[in-house]
Amino acid sequence: MRANKWFLTAAIPLLGLWGCDSSQAKGPGSETTNGIVATVISDGMVASYASVTLHKADFISNDTTGTVVVPNYETDSLGGFTLEDLDTGKYRLSIALGGKLHSEEISYSGNTLDLGEITLEAPGTVSGTFADGNGETLASWIGVYGLDILVRTDSEGNFTLSGLPAGELKIFALSEDRKSVVADTNLTVKTSKTCSWIHTDLADRSSSSAEDPGSSSSPEESKSSSSAESSSSSELSSSSSKEFISMVFEDFEDSVSFAAKNWYFSADTAAQINYPTLLSNYWDAVVDNSDRNGHVFSGYFSTEPGGYVIFGTRISTEGIDMSDLDSVTFYAKGSGNLRFALERWESTSSDNLKAWTKDLPLTSSWTRFSVSPTDFQLPEDDTLSTGWESVKKTVTRVHFFATSGQEISLDDITVYGLTF
């Protein structure tokens, strides 16, 4: 290890104030007292001299430079590290090297905790808005508990947290003086993807105070006992509060998740599927796309007049109440037209219900579409649509209909307003 670096040892309780101390920690394999041990891998090789940071899990940063991980230790030449003489409690361990990261919340009980091999991954992004209906900013600073990043919202309440480690993170919003936690929520950040936190019409939360930037106490110690719970996305109690938590329903990056949803790509009698040719393996149609910086679904077909193909999945057998739906967004390209539908549909049912949009023209360029309940056709406007009111409490399927074209490509299907 390099002698000119600062190292992380018994001074961990003071990291919220000082960030490091001068006591030296040992690498894996040496005789140590109890601590946290791991080896870091990046691109299949040991991650030598990677930046390592350990904060209390409820740590709130004061660093406004936008840096995600401010190191207070580094791995050795073999990618290993040991953090010794720690107090028991919950921590967030973060590691970074060459633009790739790993971060996880861990519980340390006082015994040796061997995390094994840790693999660094490409980062993701969280973006969103904190503003009321009049454009008044509701929070001035956005950060992540346990990480060093803290960014300021713009004049309209917009923000972007870039370079975040993939995984479960808890995002918080602070007042202008950085002494009050306005709100917080849990989000899942995915590699090379952007998820959103949109929070509007927030009630006053001046009683929920965060860590004083000049104090070494943790936010949990200085907040009122109910503030963390009352600011979570699922328990906002004020009638004037409205928070849209986004759920990335499908980003086509995980074959296991894709298979679990049982996606299908089928054609009616006036259409034919040309690709994927093996209809039992629809993952064959999930391909890498440089324009989208990841994987997308791309299906190819041919139709006669009036024919269509469906890309869809059954999300429930009994039906999901989607009354709180704000919108569904997705990226699409191809040819012909697309219609998005939420349905209560079973092949043998006599009371199938459908809410779908009008034709959405597809082009050869990726377009972001946003569908809200008001975009679904009314029965009087389209005899094939029974309307949103008829289906919203018992949605069983998500469908994309493609007509009069040859390609439908989709990416990043995101639901706002509810999770399921």
Concise synopsis of the structure shown:
The chain has helices at residues 219-222, 227-230, 255-260, 388-391, and strands at residues 35-42, 45-46, 51-56, 73-74, 80-84, 89-97, 100-108, 113-119, 124-131, 141-144, 150-152, 158-164, 167-174, 181-189, 194-200, 242-250, 264-267, 271-275, 286-289, 294-303, 308-314, 327-334, 337-344, 353-356, 360-361, 367-371, 397-403, 407-416.
What does this structure look like?
The chain is mainly beta and 420 residues long. Helix content is 4%, strand content 42%. It has helices at 219-222, 227-230, 255-260, 388-391, and strands at 35-42, 45-46, 51-56, 73-74, 80-84, 89-97, 100-108, 113-119, 124-131, 141-144, 150-152, 158-164, 167-174, 181-189, 194-200, 242-250, 264-267, 271-275, 286-289, 294-303, 308-314, 327-334, 337-344, 353-356, 360-361, 367-371, 397-403, 407-416. Strands 9, 12, 15, 16, 18, 19, 20, 22, 26 and 28 form a ten-stranded mixed sheet that branches.
Strand content: 35-45%
**Largest sheet entry:** 10 strands, mixed
Low-confidence stretches: 1-32, 201-243
DSSP summary: helix tally:
4
What's the rounded overall pLDDT mean? 80
